[in-house]
Every structure is written in structure tokens, then in C-alpha cells.
Amino acid sequence: MQNINQLFKLIRPKQWIKNFFVFGPAFFAGVIFQTNSILAGLITFLAYSFAASSIYCFNDIYDVEDDRRHPVKCKRPIAAGDITIPQAYGLMGLMFLLAMSASSLLLLLPNERVNPIASAYQTGSIILFYWLLNLAYCAKLKQYAIIDVCIVAFGFVLRLLAGGFAVGVVLSKWIVLMTFLITLFMSFAKRRDDVLRMEKTGEAPRKNTIRYNLTFINQAITITASVTLVCYIMYTVSPEVIQNFHSDYLYLTSIFVLVGLLRYIQVSVVDKKSGDPTKVILRDRFTQCVLLAWVLAFLLIIYVF
User: What residue ranges are annotated as transmembrane (predicted)?
Assistant: First the structure.
């Protein structure tokens, strides 16, 4: 039983919350409650989650020596010696096979907006590209400052693309821009936690942390938060968006975005707890309330009014 718990710890199912981004295209297209869209979204969510878990395994294998020197990551299953490297490689392969197998289930779903064969092929290709990109990220690319956070943010754009292909929805330039910007903002906030740890211990938790400092990180957080908010406001007042949603009240949802950004900056700068965005979303009641209010506002605008 203990070994099974360690296997689950290695694949990090709590991190699967990030993959809810695949439901974004269906939500904003107003088809989220259609049966085929729900099934396609769930299949894509599982496929992406399995692929992400495969990457987590590879990351912990590749970083095992660095993790053993880290005050927190030393408790990871491989670094702690609870899971052997061959076992981790086996689990990595299994997760990848499950990801590809899950995406092929889209072939069985009829879809009025896209051919099931095209849907399954395009979605599977995006997930495969995500998997290969993150192998390169874990092995080399994460050593380069700025490039590392851009790849993380681009990974969320790929989630949107996969979700869009799965349900046959073409993404707008706005949703792509805002997804990249908000996740870039959160990625810089996460790096801030690494910089604080480096200044406290004198040892860089990541090889590229020495290319960051608090001045740079604080300015990067401010810039990305500001651009995100401006981009969102432009989105809500865009004539094409107003026409698409048949409502000119979208601008009111900017309040939730502003408050959410301010809260995350508070968590990062005041509380110094931005090291794991998933934990912030799962544990911070303020953030949860803001997200819920934003979702409910869009539900009313898209599906009711």
C-alpha cells in the first residue's frame, strides 16, 4: 500500500487541475453542456493528465540528484528512495500509453463541428507535441531563464488547442493571448519563490535561478499582470466579442480579473507562498471565491442572458 501511495505521489494527480484548461474552448463557445462536448472534454482532460504525469516521472528521474539537495523536493519518491529509477521509467511509459490511448477514444464520438478522425488526430498530435516539448524542457530548456517560464505558459496554450480540436471549436486570438499572459504571470510568481529560497540558503534550487533576482522578478510580475489586465479589458469591449456573446456587460467581469491578480500578487509578495500555483488555487479561499464569481458571471452572460 505504501508503494502504491508513492506511485500516486510520483504522478501528482493534484496537478491535474491545470488540465481543466482543455474545457475553456467549449465553455466560451457556449457548448460546454452538450453531451458530446462534455465527453470530448473529459477524454482530452484524462489524456492530457496522463501525458503530464509521464513528464512528472521523467522530471523526477532527471532531477533526482538536485532534488536530494532541495529542502522540500528531497521528499519526492525517487529522491527519497521510495521508487527506483527503473520503476519510474516504467510508470512514465505506462502514463504515455494511457495518454495516447485515451485521445484515440475521440474516434468514437460523433461531432457535428468536426470529423472524429480529424479531432482524434489533431488532439493526439497536440498532446504528443506537448510531451516531446516537455521532455526537452526537463532535460535542457528549463536551464535558460525566461525561456523556461515561456515554455510553461505555452503549455497552457497547448491545452486550449487540444480542447478546441477535441470539440471542434476554433480559438480566438483573445483566449490564446490571455491564457499565455496569465500563466506567464503565475510562472514568474513561482520563480520568485525560488529566488527567495536562494537568497535565504545561498544555494540556487534551479540552475537558472541565478539569472533571476527579486528586482527583475517583481518587475516581470508587474508587467505581465498589467498587460494581462489591459488585454482582458480590450477583449471584453471588443465589438466582435460583444456580438458573439450578444452582451455588452462583459466588461464588468474585469473586476474579478483585477481582484484575482491583486490577490495573487499579495500571496507572492506579502505571504511569499507562490511556489506552487496549484496549492494557491486549492487552498486559498479568497482566490477560489474570485474564480467562482468570474465563472458564474460568464455562465450568466453566455448561457442565461
Answer: 16-33, 39-62, 83-108, 114-133, 145-165, 171-189, 210-237, 249-265, 286-304
What does the alpha-carbon distance between residue 173 and residue 178 come to, in Å, rounded to a whole number? 9
Residues 158 and 198 in one domain: no
* Same structural domain, 209 and 271: yes
In the predicted model, what is the mean pLDDT of residues 144-156? 95
Co-location of 136 and 201 in the same domain = no
C-alpha–C-alpha distance, residues 222 and 226, integer Å: 6
Same domain? 134 vs 195: no
H-only helix segments in 83-141? 85-104, 116-139
pLDDT mean over 102-123: 89
**Does residue 47 share a domain with residue 126?**
yes
Q: Are residues 166 and 180 in the same domain?
A: no
Nearest Cα residue to 130 out of 146, 149, 145, 151: 151
Mark residue 157 as left, alpha or beta (left: phi above 0; alpha: psi -120 to 50; beta: remaining): alpha
| 132/264 same-domain check | no
Region 122-139 average pLDDT = 96
Nearest to 9 by CA among 49, 53, 68: 53
Q: Which of 189, 181, 264 is nearest to 221 (CA)?
A: 189
Range of the domain at 158: 1-171
Quick: pLDDT tens for 211-262.
999 999 999 999 999 999 999 999 999 898 888 888 888 999 999 999 999 9
Q: Please tell me the pTM assigned to this model.
A: 0.92
Look up residue 107 and give its three cell numbers: 474516434
Among candidate residues 131, 152, 171, the one where a domain is terminated: 171
In the chain, helix, strand, coil percent, each to 5?
Answer: 80, 0, 20
Q: How far is CA 268 from the centre of its chain?
A: 18
